[in-house]
Amino acid sequence: MNELKWLAFEVTPKCNLNCIHCRTNASSDLQEILTYKQITKTIDDIDKRFKPVLVLTGGEPLLRADIFEIASFAKSKNWRVGLATNGTLVDEKIATKIKAHFDIVSLSLDGSNAYIHDNFRAQEGAFNATINAAKLFNKYDIPFIINSSVTKRNQHDIENTYKLAKSLGAKSWYMFIIVPTGRAENLRSELISKTDYYKILKWHFKLELVEKNMFIRPTCAPEYYAIADLYTKTHDIDYKRRSLSFSTGGAKGCIAGQSIAFIGFDGSIKPCSYFLHKAGNILENSFLDIWDNSTIFKNLRDFNAYTGKCKTCDYINTCGGCRARADAYFGDYLAIDPYCLYWSNNASK
């Protein structure tokens, strides 16, 4: 039976920003649906079998009035609990409360300067607020990671963003390859090209070989694992994959519905936060029932159910293809990942 190792719980759709790539279409006008009792009941249900890393996300989770109470409940179950925030609401008082209730925090940073980041976040001053949050986390010894989303408008700044994340003291840096869902559906023309995707992943892998202080890993980029394998074999490199203690292990590409899951603000359960198809809803069935019996989850765990080149690929167990991206592009989460690189003649060069 597949073990749930990591769960993102979207506790609110409210947000003080209107980011151009938001998968939730979050805004300040939206209302919360799930009650504290419904959320904690789900945590109780899951705790019967699993103790995953729980990430409370949104929207902006700090806008939820009982966010710290939810975190405390999960902590009482001996779960490790993380907070995913844009950082703009973090001040001295909030930082001390985060210190008392969370094990780790993720900050969103989409550029190395205010012009690029604020453009992504559609809010002037967002960059300075995020930098201030990082400084406060350092002051109060709160471990944090930085997530950076990439499109054509900021791909030239990727290396500078990595350097800034490192200088801020982040424990890890995750480079997100955007999947066109939510508001990002309007960014299809801005998504990085397949050719640039390959170049960026190759650059990232070479960086990982020499970066020893900060954990780095691309996200929603399962082909990275095939590239790493091919490159190390053709260049005779002794590569030992590292893993952050709050990650899912770092041993495989797409793990949606296999060891991770997402619960939306309306109670919907998905294999990951970018998936379009819903596997069920906690307001109708228990999480464990859906985790065990959903057709979507079963299909994702059965590689024989995959179609096209993924079905016969040597790297099906290593890469797996981004199931959410296949879903977004083809309406078929079992189809080939449109960013597949293995079949390129340059894949191992």
TrEMBL record:
Cofactor: [4Fe-4S] cluster
A Pfam cross-reference name: Radical_SAM
Any one GO molecular function term: 4 iron, 4 sulfur cluster binding
InterPro entries referenced in this protein's UniProt entry, alphabetically: 4Fe4S-binding_SPASM_dom, Aldolase_TIM, Elp3/MiaA/NifB-like_rSAM, PqqE-like, Radical_SAM_PqqE_MftC-like, rSAM, rSAM_sf
PANTHER family attached to this UniProt entry: PQQA PEPTIDE CYCLASE (PTHR11228:SF7), RADICAL SAM DOMAIN PROTEIN (PTHR11228)
Keywords: 4Fe-4S, Iron, Iron-sulfur, Metal-binding, S-adenosyl-L-methionine
The protein's name: Radical SAM domain heme biosynthesis protein
The Radical SAM core domain, residue ranges: 1-211
